[in-house]
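Human:
Focus on the backbone:
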Amino acid sequence: MNPWESLKTEAQRVIEETIAELPPEIQVEAKKVPVLFEEECAEDPEILGTYGHFVPGEVSEANGPIILYLATIDDYCAEENEDFATEVRLTYLHELGHHLGWDEGDLEERGLG
């Protein structure tokens, strides 16, 4: 398996486990939002993930998508001596929080900032 496929496989596993651990009402929303994988963000190669259609204080009706930039996450983990799976989980939850209408302050309060 090439490195890109390995990153995608691991990220998919982490996301599935993360969704399974969420409270039922959040699981329902999480399952509605597609998660896409790209190597890096063309507009800002430093960011780890994005969520489309963020509306502060409201659950988005647009359903994302959540995009995780796996090569950027992998590079970040190598530089910061962080675990790839842990960072994928945190980035996913951060972007899912935006789907739920949580702004950066709300995310910080929940440990996802």
Q: What stands out?
A: The domain at 3-109 is CATH 3.30.2010.20 (Zincin-like). The chain has a mean pLDDT of 91. The chain is about 55% helix and 10% strand.
